[in-house]
Design goal:
Elements (H helix, E strand, L loop, with lengths): L3 H11 L3 H10 L4 H11 L1 H7 L6 E8 L5 E9 L2 H4 L2 H16 L5 H6 L1 E2 L2 E2 H12 L4 E9 L3 E8 L4 E8 L5 H17 L11 H17 L4 H19 L5 E2 L2 E5 H12 L4 E9 L11 H9 L2
Antiparallel strand pairs: 1-2, 2-5, 3-4, 6-7, 7-10, 8-9
Helix pairs in contact: 1-2, 1-3, 2-3, 4-8, 9-12, 10-11
């Protein structure tokens, strides 16, 4: 029987997770020193020491199966852009995207416990952290499935931005696939938040109305024209954040809605954008603010 106090002590020494410490002590019959060594061998202690460091760089990975019926997009973060270009890190990210599709994984807990080359994903990540020497984290992923349509992905800037698109159509051909690629690039470039204006939450619209109202009043507009200005500006804003209302980046004479109608006539089937995902690495995360000169000087003074 492993004592709770010993588990606590091992956790404080190594910084490893509670369950990992307990398992290590069970495997070593409660021998603290051997448990520390075991955690180090597994890379868990080394990973834990780096866990507090900011990981806001990284890579977006995507994978779509050969039938284009299932696809995934995943973000894995690291500390520096240098590591994001490391081939082992790139291979790890891409292997996760493929694993999510092939094993039909639905959440991060399930992904962490999934088998990847004979080890659990969380163990493979810990080993990579220990080997490369940077904190890393699997931040998020999504998996799309379609029966009548196609899944298409696009990566921009070597994985800085990634998109995943689900198009629904009764006819699947090269034209539909090429359209998917174009829309995936549109989403990467223009960063829409919603597919249609009807998808925009009411509270978002009301909040924007209030902001626009204050802006108009601060501009000294007369009360009788304020409401008209608000609605005009709101319509313009919705066109910018709703994919179907955006101007097509390859042809500014058409909206995405018009593009879909034109392609639907061409292939003889209605085309619907069912879902999209757009990931930009590190968005919303705190960035490192390293002072390279100070870092070098601190090493010289040691």
């Amino acid at each position: 029987m492993v004592k709770a106090s010993t588990v606590k002590e091992l956790r404080e020494i190594t910084g490893a997770g509670m369950m990992d410490c307990k398992k290590a002590l069970v495997e070593t019959n409660g021998d603290l020193e051997k448990a520390i060594e075991l955690l180090r061998e597994k890379g868990l202690a080394a990973a834990a020491k780096k866990a507090g460091r900011i990981a806001a760089e990284g890579l977006i990975g995507t994978y779509v199966n050969d039938e284009r019926k299932v696809g995934a997009i995943v973000e894995v973060n690291c500390e520096t852009d240098f590591v994001a270009k490391n081939q082992e890190f790139i291979d790890f990210v891409n292997s996760l995207a493929k694993l999510i599709v092939e094993k039909e994984i639905n959440d991060l807990d399930e992904l962490n416990e999934a088998d990847l080359g004979g080890a659990k994903v969380k163990e493979a990540l810990s080993s990579l952290i220990a080997k490369i020497g940077e904190n890393m984290a699997i931040r998020r992923f999504e998996r799309f499935i379609t029966q009548d349509g196609v899944i298409v992905s696009y990566l921009h800037g070597g994985g800085r931005i990634g998109t995943l698109i689900q198009l629904e159509s009764s006819i699947v051909n090269d034209t539909l696939i090429e359209l998917g690629k174009d829309i995936a690039m549109q989403v990467a470039a223009m960063n829409p938040l919603y597919i249609n204006a009807s998808d925009v939450p009411c509270d978002y619209i009301e909040k924007e109305r209030e902001i626009l109202r204050v802006q108009a009043i601060n501009e000294g507009k007369k009360p009788e024209v304020v409401e008209k200005m608000i609605e005009g500006r709101l319509r313009k804003q919705l066109k910018e954040i709703c994919l179907m209302d955006q101007l097509y980046v390859k042809d500014n004479e058409r909206t995405i809605s018009k593009l879909l109608k034109d392609k639907a006539k061409e292939i003889g089937s209605e085309i619907v954008i069912a879902r999209f995902a757009r990931y930009e690495k590190g968005e919303g995360l705190q960035k490192r603010e390293d002072n390279f000169v100070d870092e070098v000087m601190s090493q010289i003074k040691k």
